[in-house]
Write a structure and sequence with these properties.
single chain; mainly alpha; 434 Repressor (Amino-terminal Domain); 4 helices; 61% helix; 0% strand; globular
């Protein structure tokens, strides 16, 4: 099984990759409903941010 990516979360939640990134990074301008959809997808896929990629 592969590690879940932002793309996987976006596809499951029905949103863009940038929207998932905004939710993960706790940025503004994301509706509560969208945050909840993304959070559900993150949990369903057991998504964990790649810390090595984040530190680039």
């Amino acid at each position: 099984m592969h590690r879940a990516t932002l793309e996987d979360v976006a596809a499951l939640a029905g949103v863009s990759i940038k929207t998932v990134s905004r939710v993960v990074n706790k940025e503004a301008n994301v509706s509560q409903a969208t945050q909840e959809k993304v959070a559900a997808a993150i949990e369903a896929l057991n998504y964990k941010p790649n810390l090595s990629a984040r530190n680039l």
